[in-house]
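During the no-cost extension, the postdoctoral fellow (Dr. R.K.) reprocessed legacy sequence entries with the updated structure-token encoder. One reprocessed record is reproduced below for audit purposes.
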Amino acid sequence: MSKKFGIADDICARMLDWRHDIHANPETAFQEHRTAQLVADALMEMQIPLHRGLGGTGVVGTLKNGEGPTIALRADMDALDLQELGDRVHKSTRAGKMHGCGHDGHTTMLLGAAVQLARHRPFRGTVHFVFQPAEENEGGGKKMVEEGLFKMFPADAVYGMHNIPNIPRGKFAIRTGIATAFLDTFEIAVTGSGCHAATPEKGIDPILVSADLVSALQGIVSRRIGAMDAAVVSVTQIHGGDTWNVVPETVTLRGTVRTLDAEIQNQVEAAMKQVCAGVAQTHGAKIDLSYMRGYPGVINTPAETDAAASAAANLVGVEQVQTDIKPAMGSEDFAFMLQERPGAYICIGAGETANDPPLHNPYYDFNDAILPLGAAYWVELVKQQLPAA
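Re-encoded structure tokens follow.
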């Protein structure tokens, strides 16, 4: 098969235009109005019935061709709050916002597949094309589910895909079971007693308390979680103080917790509460922990994982599909869809060299060379999962 993997030349050309347009006009969580309009316009041109508004800016197109099974294919649309530093013709035109994770490419590949499937209809059944807002941090997938995604658009299974720059182009990777981490966030308010910096003994220094607390939190993973159990506790923000010569009254810490198992997740939360209480008592300070459960882990179901791997192998060969990839400590709100329906989340390689910028890097850009392969994967999956017309 050619490098276009059976995707028509005109569709490949349109995908390139769509991708560069979306990249140049990035929109972050729940603000994807222009992107949603581009998607809706393309679906309407294909005469694919669509619904708008789920999750705020979500778009769902439905292609039905007779009676048969139903599957849902999902792509995310949102960009990041990140200043793009790369030098390219389609560089972001919006300060402080960029498609640094490749959702512009994900949206484009699913649109390309929709055109190909609408044009040829090589199946009997129904395909829902789910274009989701707000994957980055804000849980747009959860919101779509809560607002009735699978009640309005029933599906026997749901599938997702993400580009990965450190996997070579032409390869795919997937695993059965846990594939991405559970993601929780926390905020800790440390309250001491403010005083003059020249006489710290007259107060309770929340900065010193916070320093001890950060060190103690790192001990949870190294000393209270088993060596074979994955967990990451990261303090990513420390805010406190306004001037040089005043010990402040309060300090705020924020961060994330990532685990690969619900029981370990519970253990980390309990340990954090215990550590906060102990450090507070040691210093005579007050420490309030707010622990927020976030994205669950992506858990690929066995049959659907096999289906995804098989579809990829039909395009690139079995030897190019890794089926025992290690779980990622990153997180994905596609997990909320997998809590409702069986399904699988596959990684498509996008790497050209060992020095390609990683995801969420200001120099990153989606690799246009994989657009035809990504679209062809969706088409192959539909042909495999739905009976031939």
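Residues 309 and 321 are 7 Å apart (CA to CA). The chain has a mean pLDDT of 97. The remaining legacy entries will be reprocessed before the final report is submitted.
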